[in-house]
């Protein structure tokens, strides 16, 4: 074919085969930067301006953050309880300010709770004084003091609210990038679950505390308020953790399906690079979720471990005497705490599995024979990125939250239960004390006659010695 030496659009440039030389210079792959916020469309305000048609292909902004809206019922209850002083000056923007009305409200609620618990502590001392003296009875009495430990988690949650707000803002960036790449808004479908949890947890927690009040002899009616509040807080944190892990799992599954579907029709290297960048965002969100809630859920795990140990010991200590009505509250507390600890560990394990392992399976199932060299290189780089970037949910690097953690806590719990039961066996029962009390008078009489016998013998010896000296 002939070469055209001139063209109106490209003056002075030869166009071989009718293709502009500038088009060949265009790079095949676009660089993707993880820390750069996707560009948002900005329009100059004018009286006679023409607004472009808004659709998913032109407008990459979002009117509301989907993640917050899906978990909103649980967030609202936490804010009402004064646990999460999060402020939202505008949609898609989450902030934490120390000098804010939300923080002042949270401090007021917490001070009221502490004052009420201090007032009830006087009655708690009277309860401890009326204990019967058994070791297992004392442990059960101390259990009600342990129930008040979640008060310490509220200031910890205040400290981590800033990090939680940063994670929510990073989710907004993830939603914008996902919409730009896939052309549709992120759909989670967690509104119904969040609403059910926000209603069911307060109701079930209140019922649990009431049952404990009815079955326990020393539990007073005026102590219901702080115990109900702290019980709701404990299990609501479990619901909050469940929704965060479900969000990670659903996003990882959707991203893997979209990636596999895109490779069936289009296989450029740039598309693979964009999905790799989006996956790296999701992996970072999984790590940040654990880091943002490090101290809160570390304390919650230790608290549940202590509650389960004491509750099961209270049940096992009554096996010889048979289970009574007061053991219903202990059994309910132990079962609920075990279930909560299991779900915290299992949901984190499931989320980490979906973010990394399931995505690796999708990559390994990709057919590389029909792709070009650049696309195959991007796929291999994607696999290497999934191997090098850890997606485990770790609580600040102290330990990973997974099923292994649950198994380790149960093994440690069994060890402590054996030690407590052995210590209980070594303490004499009341029957042995009564038998020793019956035998003690005879032992005292014998001790009182011993000094009299010794004095009589000594006086006889001295008299005999004195008489013999007189004779001599």
TrEMBL record:
InterPro entries in alphabetical order? 7TM_chemorcpt
Keyword Coiled coil in the entry? The reply is no
Q: Which residues cross the membrane?
A: 102-122, 142-159, 194-219, 294-316, 328-345
Q: What is its main location?
A: membrane
Q: Which UniProt keywords apply?
A: Cell membrane, Membrane, Receptor, Transducer, Transmembrane, Transmembrane helix
Where is this protein localized, as stated in its record?
Cell membrane
GO cellular component terms, alphabetically, are:
axon; dendrite; neuronal cell body; plasma membrane
| Mode of membrane association | Multi-pass membrane protein
- An individual GO BP term: sensory perception of taste
**According to the UniProt entry, where is the signal peptide?**
none
The role this protein plays is: Gustatory receptor which mediates acceptance or avoidance behavior, depending on its substrates.
Q: Which family does it belong to?
A: Belongs to the insect chemoreceptor superfamily. Gustatory receptor (GR) family.
Name assigned to this protein: Gustatory receptor
The organism named in the record is: Eumeta variegata
